[in-house]
């Protein structure tokens, strides 16, 4: 592995401080490095591989599509995209779909749709967007402009204009930013990168009401918390509200790079039209074959039921750790998206766990994030807790 890591550090742009392993293959909830060492994976490529690695039906569906047709262009129809759109509409209750290559690209599209909606309504190109502090929406310019982490934005200013920030779960702070020009409010239903902060039911319904009153579009970023992770296909479905625009990615393709932004018919009929937006690869037959199969397997394998069963157990076991160790100060999250909050940096603990065959990741410097494949069992949780506890003993 050393040789490959050295070569990587000479060739790849160093935009990540990578863990010192080269991953080679996966099976179920386990990953293996080049030396054959086995790891229990509680990261799943950051909330991506919901179905577990090396799922045969998923692999077979992709192989079949490879032998048929990988790519056309969005100037032609293709059956996998039509089927994937039908299935994602069914599970989301949204009306219109645009497939992208990534989460950030889905956020870009969502912002463009909101700006266009405002432009058609008012005749003015001055729409303002309210985003949340500590949010994360991606690294491209539009997505970065609504990402509430000044550290990520600073060197790349100026961002796109007319973006204001408020605090999640503080409705007054949102109201204080609303003007006649406000065209959209964007937030993650459960903040991921920013530290695993779920939006409360009250906050979401207050925003929904505000948006209805003022014809502002509510954009929910479900890229990390969506796709069954919280025990609902999309996290907002727990709360009896519905966004006007929604983004999804990460687990949508379970390893194939694909995302989407979706909207209601109201937004669809009053925003982007032919010529306004496009993508070469987005929604190609290969990516959409993955989406279609993922959504089939979610149903067939009762993925959400498994989340509902295992997540309370994970919460309970994490709460036990919190009670046991003074330096763990909080546990928060929703479903199989959990964060353990420490009073100190967690990088040493994560490195120790890696040595012992457990893959974990942080969300901010002092939070260990747990976003395992959604097929994990209670036994996997027990195994994880045992390794993690052995790492905590030496802190
Ligand atoms: C990961 C993530 C993104 C960006 O997705 P990419 O595919 O990395 O561009 C956007 N929003 C949220 C909430 C995310 O977790």
TrEMBL record:
Pathway assigned in UniProt: Amino-acid biosynthesis; L-arginine biosynthesis; N(2)-acetyl-L-ornithine from L-glutamate: step 4/4
EC id: 2.6.1.11
Subcellular location, record wording: Cytoplasm
One GO CC term, this protein: cytoplasm
GO molecular function: identical protein binding; N2-acetyl-L-ornithine:2-oxoglutarate 5-aminotransferase activity; pyridoxal phosphate binding
Cofactor info, note text: Binds 1 pyridoxal phosphate per subunit.
Gene3D superfamilies from the UniProt entry: Aspartate Aminotransferase, domain 1 (3.90.1150.10), Type I PLP-dependent aspartate aminotransferase-like (Major domain) (3.40.640.10)
Keywords linked to the UniProt accession: Amino-acid biosynthesis, Aminotransferase, Arginine biosynthesis, Cytoplasm, Pyridoxal phosphate, Transferase
Chain sites annotated for binding pyridoxal 5'-phosphate: 103-104, 136, 221-224, 280
Enzyme class per UniProt: transferase
GO biological process, one term: L-arginine biosynthetic process
Superkingdom of the source species: Bacteria
Main location: cytoplasm
Cofactor: pyridoxal 5'-phosphate
Reactions accelerated catalytically: N(2)-acetyl-L-ornithine + 2-oxoglutarate = N-acetyl-L-glutamate 5-semialdehyde + L-glutamate
Residues that, per the record, bind N(2)-acetyl-L-ornithine: 139, 279
N6-(pyridoxal phosphate)lysine modification, residue list: 250
Quaternary organization: Homodimer.
Note: May also have succinyldiaminopimelate aminotransferase activity, thus carrying out the corresponding step in lysine biosynthesis.
Family of this protein: Belongs to the class-III pyridoxal-phosphate-dependent aminotransferase family. ArgD subfamily.
Name used for this protein in its record: Acetylornithine aminotransferase
Organism encoding this protein: Butyrivibrio proteoclasticus (strain ATCC 51982 / DSM 14932 / B316)
